[in-house]
Design goal:
The chain folds into 2 domains: about 90 residues, Elongation Factor Tu (Ef-tu), domain 3; about 150 residues, Rossmann fold. The protein has 7 helices and 12 strands. It has a 6-stranded antiparallel β-sheet with strand order 4-3-6-1-2-5, covered by helices on one side. Strands 10-9-8-7-11-12 form a 6-stranded parallel β-sheet, sandwiched between helices. The termini are close together. The model has no long low-confidence stretch (mean pLDDT about 95).
Protein backbone atom coordinates (compact mmCIF):
# COMPACT_ATOMS: atom_id res chain seq x y z
CA UNK A 1 0.00 0.00 0.00
CA UNK A 2 1.43 3.38 -0.98
CA UNK A 3 1.17 5.83 1.93
CA UNK A 4 0.99 9.55 1.28
CA UNK A 5 1.06 12.46 3.72
CA UNK A 6 -1.99 12.48 6.01
CA UNK A 7 -3.15 13.61 9.42
CA UNK A 8 -4.93 11.76 12.23
CA UNK A 9 -8.28 12.54 13.80
CA UNK A 10 -9.96 10.92 16.78
CA UNK A 11 -12.88 8.55 16.37
CA UNK A 12 -15.15 6.60 18.71
CA UNK A 13 -15.61 2.85 18.56
CA UNK A 14 -19.28 2.00 17.94
CA UNK A 15 -19.02 -1.78 17.64
CA UNK A 16 -16.37 -4.49 17.59
CA UNK A 17 -17.94 -7.56 15.97
CA UNK A 18 -16.28 -10.92 16.64
CA UNK A 19 -16.53 -13.34 13.71
CA UNK A 20 -14.11 -15.97 15.08
CA UNK A 21 -11.36 -16.09 17.67
CA UNK A 22 -9.13 -14.18 15.23
CA UNK A 23 -11.45 -12.26 12.88
CA UNK A 24 -13.11 -8.95 13.77
CA UNK A 25 -14.96 -6.05 12.20
CA UNK A 26 -14.42 -2.68 13.88
CA UNK A 27 -16.94 0.12 13.33
CA UNK A 28 -15.83 3.65 14.18
CA UNK A 29 -17.71 6.94 14.21
CA UNK A 30 -15.42 9.58 12.76
CA UNK A 31 -15.70 12.58 10.44
CA UNK A 32 -14.55 10.93 7.23
CA UNK A 33 -13.33 12.97 4.30
CA UNK A 34 -14.66 11.88 0.89
CA UNK A 35 -13.03 8.66 -0.35
CA UNK A 36 -13.32 6.03 -3.06
CA UNK A 37 -14.46 2.47 -2.43
CA UNK A 38 -11.39 0.25 -2.19
CA UNK A 39 -9.18 2.80 -0.43
CA UNK A 40 -7.59 2.40 3.01
CA UNK A 41 -6.88 4.39 6.16
CA UNK A 42 -4.37 3.95 8.96
CA UNK A 43 -5.50 3.19 12.49
CA UNK A 44 -3.34 4.33 15.39
CA UNK A 45 -3.30 3.35 19.08
CA UNK A 46 -0.86 3.65 21.99
CA UNK A 47 0.31 0.12 22.87
CA UNK A 48 2.78 -0.51 25.68
CA UNK A 49 3.92 3.09 25.78
CA UNK A 50 4.44 3.30 22.01
CA UNK A 51 2.12 4.55 19.29
CA UNK A 52 1.49 1.76 16.76
CA UNK A 53 0.00 2.35 13.30
CA UNK A 54 -1.19 0.08 10.49
CA UNK A 55 -3.17 0.39 7.26
CA UNK A 56 -6.63 -1.17 6.88
CA UNK A 57 -9.00 -1.11 3.91
CA UNK A 58 -12.42 0.42 4.40
CA UNK A 59 -15.42 -1.92 4.35
CA UNK A 60 -17.98 0.88 4.37
CA UNK A 61 -19.18 2.51 1.17
CA UNK A 62 -18.41 6.21 0.61
CA UNK A 63 -22.01 7.17 1.43
CA UNK A 64 -22.16 5.28 4.74
CA UNK A 65 -21.69 7.37 7.90
CA UNK A 66 -19.42 5.08 9.94
CA UNK A 67 -15.98 3.72 9.14
CA UNK A 68 -15.61 -0.06 9.19
CA UNK A 69 -12.54 -2.30 8.86
CA UNK A 70 -12.20 -6.09 8.72
CA UNK A 71 -9.06 -7.45 10.37
CA UNK A 72 -7.43 -10.51 11.86
CA UNK A 73 -5.27 -10.85 14.94
CA UNK A 74 -1.83 -12.41 14.66
CA UNK A 75 0.41 -13.88 17.40
CA UNK A 76 2.38 -11.06 19.03
CA UNK A 77 0.61 -8.54 16.80
CA UNK A 78 0.57 -5.51 19.05
CA UNK A 79 -1.93 -3.42 17.13
CA UNK A 80 -4.22 -6.22 15.93
CA UNK A 81 -4.63 -7.58 19.45
CA UNK A 82 -5.16 -4.07 20.84
CA UNK A 83 -7.86 -3.48 18.20
CA UNK A 84 -9.55 -6.76 19.13
CA UNK A 85 -9.74 -5.58 22.75
CA UNK A 86 -11.55 -2.32 21.91
CA UNK A 87 -15.12 -1.84 23.05
CA UNK A 88 -17.89 0.66 22.38
CA UNK A 89 -16.95 4.13 23.59
CA UNK A 90 -13.19 3.59 23.26
CA UNK A 91 -11.22 6.17 21.30
CA UNK A 92 -8.90 5.56 18.35
CA UNK A 93 -7.07 7.72 15.85
CA UNK A 94 -7.81 7.42 12.12
CA UNK A 95 -5.77 8.89 9.27
CA UNK A 96 -7.43 11.20 6.78
CA UNK A 97 -7.89 11.33 3.89
CA UNK A 98 -8.18 7.70 2.78
CA UNK A 99 -5.61 6.62 0.20
CA UNK A 100 -4.87 3.96 -2.39
CA UNK A 101 -5.41 3.06 -6.04
CA UNK A 102 -7.28 -0.25 -5.61
CA UNK A 103 -10.42 1.46 -6.90
CA UNK A 104 -12.74 1.15 -9.89
CA UNK A 105 -11.48 4.43 -11.36
CA UNK A 106 -8.19 2.65 -12.04
CA UNK A 107 -9.81 -0.33 -13.79
CA UNK A 108 -9.94 -0.07 -17.60
CA UNK A 109 -13.10 -0.77 -19.53
CA UNK A 110 -13.90 -4.47 -19.75
CA UNK A 111 -16.92 -6.77 -19.71
CA UNK A 112 -16.11 -9.01 -16.74
CA UNK A 113 -14.61 -8.01 -13.38
CA UNK A 114 -13.06 -10.78 -11.27
CA UNK A 115 -12.28 -10.15 -7.58
CA UNK A 116 -9.99 -12.66 -5.84
CA UNK A 117 -9.48 -12.37 -2.07
CA UNK A 118 -7.87 -14.37 0.68
CA UNK A 119 -8.90 -13.79 4.30
CA UNK A 120 -9.42 -10.15 5.20
CA UNK A 121 -8.48 -9.20 1.65
CA UNK A 122 -12.24 -9.40 1.15
CA UNK A 123 -12.54 -5.94 2.74
CA UNK A 124 -12.12 -3.53 -0.17
CA UNK A 125 -14.40 -5.63 -2.38
CA UNK A 126 -17.23 -5.28 0.13
CA UNK A 127 -16.90 -1.51 -0.10
CA UNK A 128 -16.79 -1.62 -3.91
CA UNK A 129 -19.78 -3.98 -4.17
CA UNK A 130 -21.84 -1.61 -2.02
CA UNK A 131 -21.56 1.08 -4.70
CA UNK A 132 -23.76 1.50 -7.77
CA UNK A 133 -20.83 1.99 -10.16
CA UNK A 134 -19.65 -1.63 -10.16
CA UNK A 135 -23.10 -2.88 -11.21
CA UNK A 136 -23.40 -0.26 -13.94
CA UNK A 137 -19.98 -0.84 -15.51
CA UNK A 138 -19.60 -4.61 -15.82
CA UNK A 139 -21.70 -7.31 -17.46
CA UNK A 140 -20.45 -9.91 -14.98
CA UNK A 141 -18.99 -9.41 -11.49
CA UNK A 142 -17.26 -12.40 -9.88
CA UNK A 143 -16.09 -12.62 -6.26
CA UNK A 144 -13.83 -15.47 -5.11
CA UNK A 145 -12.99 -15.69 -1.40
CA UNK A 146 -10.43 -18.12 -0.01
CA UNK A 147 -10.21 -19.02 3.70
CA UNK A 148 -8.92 -21.94 5.79
CA UNK A 149 -12.21 -22.68 7.61
CA UNK A 150 -15.92 -22.36 6.86
CA UNK A 151 -16.50 -20.14 9.88
CA UNK A 152 -14.13 -17.56 8.38
CA UNK A 153 -16.48 -16.84 5.48
CA UNK A 154 -17.42 -13.44 6.89
CA UNK A 155 -20.09 -11.16 5.40
CA UNK A 156 -21.87 -14.17 3.89
CA UNK A 157 -25.32 -12.68 4.51
CA UNK A 158 -24.37 -9.42 2.80
CA UNK A 159 -22.86 -11.27 -0.16
CA UNK A 160 -26.07 -13.30 -0.35
CA UNK A 161 -28.11 -10.13 -0.83
CA UNK A 162 -26.11 -9.32 -3.98
CA UNK A 163 -26.65 -12.86 -5.25
CA UNK A 164 -30.38 -12.35 -4.86
CA UNK A 165 -30.43 -8.82 -6.28
CA UNK A 166 -28.16 -9.50 -9.28
CA UNK A 167 -28.68 -13.23 -10.06
CA UNK A 168 -27.60 -12.96 -13.70
CA UNK A 169 -24.75 -10.50 -13.13
CA UNK A 170 -23.08 -11.59 -9.89
CA UNK A 171 -21.20 -14.81 -9.18
CA UNK A 172 -19.67 -15.80 -5.85
CA UNK A 173 -17.64 -18.84 -4.91
CA UNK A 174 -15.85 -19.62 -1.66
CA UNK A 175 -12.71 -21.76 -1.49
CA UNK A 176 -12.01 -23.45 1.87
CA UNK A 177 -8.68 -25.20 2.34
CA UNK A 178 -8.74 -27.05 5.68
CA UNK A 179 -12.18 -28.64 5.64
CA UNK A 180 -14.95 -29.59 3.26
CA UNK A 181 -16.99 -26.66 2.00
CA UNK A 182 -20.73 -27.22 1.85
CA UNK A 183 -21.22 -23.75 0.33
CA UNK A 184 -18.58 -23.83 -2.39
CA UNK A 185 -15.26 -25.44 -3.27
CA UNK A 186 -12.61 -27.25 -1.24
CA UNK A 187 -8.97 -26.32 -1.90
CA UNK A 188 -6.69 -23.41 -2.68
CA UNK A 189 -8.10 -21.05 -5.27
CA UNK A 190 -4.88 -21.24 -7.29
CA UNK A 191 -5.09 -25.04 -7.51
CA UNK A 192 -8.76 -24.86 -8.39
CA UNK A 193 -7.91 -22.33 -11.09
CA UNK A 194 -5.15 -24.53 -12.55
CA UNK A 195 -7.44 -27.56 -12.60
CA UNK A 196 -10.24 -25.60 -14.35
CA UNK A 197 -12.57 -26.31 -11.42
CA UNK A 198 -13.02 -22.67 -10.45
CA UNK A 199 -14.12 -21.34 -13.82
CA UNK A 200 -16.42 -24.31 -14.42
CA UNK A 201 -18.07 -23.68 -11.05
CA UNK A 202 -18.69 -20.06 -11.99
CA UNK A 203 -19.58 -20.69 -15.61
CA UNK A 204 -17.18 -18.07 -16.98
CA UNK A 205 -13.66 -18.08 -18.36
CA UNK A 206 -11.02 -15.49 -17.55
CA UNK A 207 -9.75 -14.02 -20.79
CA UNK A 208 -7.50 -11.06 -21.55
CA UNK A 209 -10.05 -10.02 -24.18
CA UNK A 210 -13.00 -9.54 -21.82
CA UNK A 211 -11.77 -9.75 -18.21
CA UNK A 212 -9.99 -7.71 -15.58
CA UNK A 213 -8.73 -9.45 -12.44
CA UNK A 214 -8.30 -7.79 -9.04
CA UNK A 215 -6.15 -9.65 -6.50
CA UNK A 216 -6.18 -8.79 -2.79
CA UNK A 217 -4.73 -10.80 0.08
CA UNK A 218 -1.63 -12.74 0.95
CA UNK A 219 1.61 -12.56 -0.98
CA UNK A 220 1.64 -16.19 -2.14
CA UNK A 221 -1.85 -16.04 -3.66
CA UNK A 222 -1.04 -12.84 -5.52
CA UNK A 223 2.32 -14.12 -6.77
CA UNK A 224 0.87 -17.44 -7.93
CA UNK A 225 -2.21 -15.91 -9.57
CA UNK A 226 -0.13 -13.31 -11.42
CA UNK A 227 2.04 -16.10 -12.83
CA UNK A 228 -1.00 -18.14 -13.87
CA UNK A 229 -2.68 -15.15 -15.48
CA UNK A 230 0.55 -14.27 -17.28
CA UNK A 231 0.31 -17.66 -18.99
CA UNK A 232 -2.93 -16.34 -20.51
CA UNK A 233 -1.22 -13.18 -21.70
CA UNK A 234 -2.54 -11.04 -18.86
CA UNK A 235 -0.24 -8.45 -17.26
CA UNK A 236 -0.31 -5.96 -14.41
CA UNK A 237 -2.32 -2.86 -15.19
CA UNK A 238 -0.41 0.42 -15.07
CA UNK A 239 -1.58 3.88 -16.07
CA UNK A 240 1.18 4.19 -18.65
CA UNK A 241 0.89 0.53 -19.73
CA UNK A 242 -2.66 -0.87 -19.64
CA UNK A 243 -3.08 -4.46 -18.49
CA UNK A 244 -5.65 -6.85 -17.07
CA UNK A 245 -4.46 -7.42 -13.46
CA UNK A 246 -4.65 -5.08 -10.45
CA UNK A 247 -3.21 -6.06 -7.04
CA UNK A 248 -3.32 -5.06 -3.38
CA UNK A 249 -1.05 -7.03 -1.03
CA UNK A 250 -2.14 -7.44 2.59
CA UNK A 251 0.45 -9.67 4.23
Amino acid sequence: MTILRSSFIEGEVIENKTWTERLYSLRIRVELMPFKAGQFVRLQLPVGGEVVTKSYSLINAPDEPDLEVFFNTVPNGRLSNALAALRGGDRIEVSQPAQGFFVLDEIPETRHLWMFATGTGLGPYISILKTADVWKRFEKVVLVHGVPLMKELAYADLIGTWQQKYPDQFRFVSCVTREQNSAGLHGRMTDLFVNDVLEKQIGLEISKDNSHVMLCGNHNMIKDMKALLAERGMSRHLRHKPGQVTTEQYY
